[in-house]
Amino acid sequence: MKRIKKKTTDSAVVGIVTAILLVGLAVTVISIIQVVYIPNIMEQREAEHMDKVEEQMASLTSVIDYQAAIAKKGIPIASFVTLGNRELPVFVSSKAFGTLQIFDNSSSVTINSTSIFPIGRITYSSTNAYYLDQSYSYEAGAMIVSQIQGNSMLVRPSFSVNFNETQNTTTISFDVINISSVAQKNMMSGFGTSPIQTEFVGISKNITFSDVESMTITTPFSNAWFIFINHSLIDAGLNEEGHPPQCLLNDTGQAVTMYFLSDPSSDFKVSIIFKIIEIQAQIGPGWVK
Question: In angstroms, what CA-CA distances link 239 with 253, 257, 260, 261?
Answer without folding.
Answer: 21, 15, 11, 11
